[in-house]
């Protein structure tokens, strides 16, 4: 599977915890991430992550391009719904692309954990 990891600033620590918790599963798949999130996850877990640009600098759009080309199977996008994002149109476009292409997407940690749990059970 090809999995994208994206997290707003206030959610980056939770993304690191998520990646650490699911390191064994994630290590078996191709990981992509926006710049800062990818670097932090890689440093904290040792996972190999292909990093795009930072989200506000075009990373969300780069991930969106992968979605549009059906090159991603899962997007874990831990959003901060309580903080206005200067690149909100890019965020909305990315989520819309997930809907259009029927790409699996989790926007909160509970959903992300359930998806990984299901995928793990299917691999057994």
Which tags fit this structure?
124 residues; alpha/beta; 6 helices; 52% helix; 17% strand
Helix percent reads 40-55%
Largest sheet: 5 strands, parallel
Mean pLDDT: 95
How many beta-strand segments?
5
| Strand order in the largest sheet | 3-2-1-4-5
Order of helices and strands: EHHEHEHEHEH
Shape: globular
Instruction: Give me the secondary-structure category.
Output: alpha/beta
How large is the count of helical segments? 6
Distance between the termini: 15 Å
Radius of gyration: 13 Å
Low-confidence stretches: none
Beta percentage is 15-25%
Q: Could you characterize what this model shows?
A:
By secondary structure, this protein is an alpha/beta fold. 52% of the residues lie in helices and 17% in strands. The protein has 6 helices and 5 strands, in the order E-H-H-E-H-E-H-E-H-E-H. The chain has a 5-stranded parallel beta sheet, with helices on both faces. Helix 5 (88-101) links the parallel strand 4 (74-78) and strand 5. The longest helix has 15 residues, at 109-123. The mean pLDDT is 95.
């Amino acid at each position: 599977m090809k999995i994208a990891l994206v997290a707003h600033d206030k959610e980056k620590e939770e993304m690191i915890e998520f990646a650490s918790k699911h390191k064994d599963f994630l290590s078996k798949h191709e990981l992509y991430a926006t710049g800062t999130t990818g670097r932090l996850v890689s440093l904290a877990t040792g996972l190999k992550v292909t990093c795009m640009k930072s989200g506000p600098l075009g990373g969300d759009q780069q991930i969106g391009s992968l979605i549009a080309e059906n090159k991603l199977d899962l997007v874990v996008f831990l959003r901060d719904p309580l903080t206005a994002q200067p690149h909100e149109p890019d965020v909305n476009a990315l989520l819309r692309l997930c809907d259009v292409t029927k790409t699996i997407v989790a926007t909160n940690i509970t959903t992300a954990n359930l998806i990984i749990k299901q995928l793990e059970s299917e691999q057994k």
